[in-house]
Amino acid sequence: MAPSPKPVFVLVPGAALTPSHYGYLEHLLLSQGYGVLSALLPTVGTGANVTVEDDADYIRSRMLLPVLNIENHDVIMISHSYSGIPASAAARGLSKADRIADGKTTSVLGQIFIATILTRGGDGKDVVATFGGQLPPHIRVDEKENLVRCNDAKPPLFQDVSPVLADAAVLSTVSPSLTSFKSPCPAATWDTEAFKGRCAYIRTLNDRAIPYEIQNMMLQGTGQEWITRDIETGHSPQFSAPEKLSSIIVDLAKQFEAM
Length: 259
Fold this sequence. Notes:
It is a single chain. By secondary structure, the chain is of the alpha/beta class. 36% of the residues lie in helices and 15% in strands. The strands form two sheets. Strands 2-1-3-4-7-8 form a six-stranded parallel beta sheet, with helices on both faces. The chain has a two-stranded antiparallel sheet with strand order 5-6. β1, α1 (23-31) and β2 (35-38) form a beta-alpha-beta unit.
């Protein structure tokens, strides 16, 4: 089967979030003729010893490779918040150049990061270390249950979302494992030659979870050239400005498709 005319967006939810938090955004992308696949990360909803590396392995084996190798479609990956770490690692060896070299006809055409944590990884450091050794004040560590909790998720995650929708979004969150925040981050691919010019970062200007200034600091700290776009929302633009976000994503997708 020949590759489809349009790629599939593989959308990787952030920590404590589920595919339902991206449902309307997915609908908008589907309405533009793109395929969409999302899934609950293994680290979400468990106090077991599940690592960020386990998330990366899952994204690769159960989200990326099935679309690339079984369905024979190109992929554009979307990550949000925490998921930028395992998602980028999962794309290793799956770039267009890598796949052509392997005799494959489909590939990960690009990576889109929405207000994500950026860490190079591969150096033994964990998510906590990326925050300077101390998690943001809205995050509470539950050592007994091995979970990361948030006493009130609305202010940091959904402060600019309509009240009813914000309450429902909070109700739908699921705590991730503490191990995911305290296990070594795998090496990212956004700094590889294979993905040069194929990584975009969407900055959320009014973000209270990962403030705009921190996003810029992380971007500058990578030493890489990024395609950047700004959206005037808090941490969850898929709720507060879904039409604008989908428009940005589709524009970026077209740019990656043309390369």
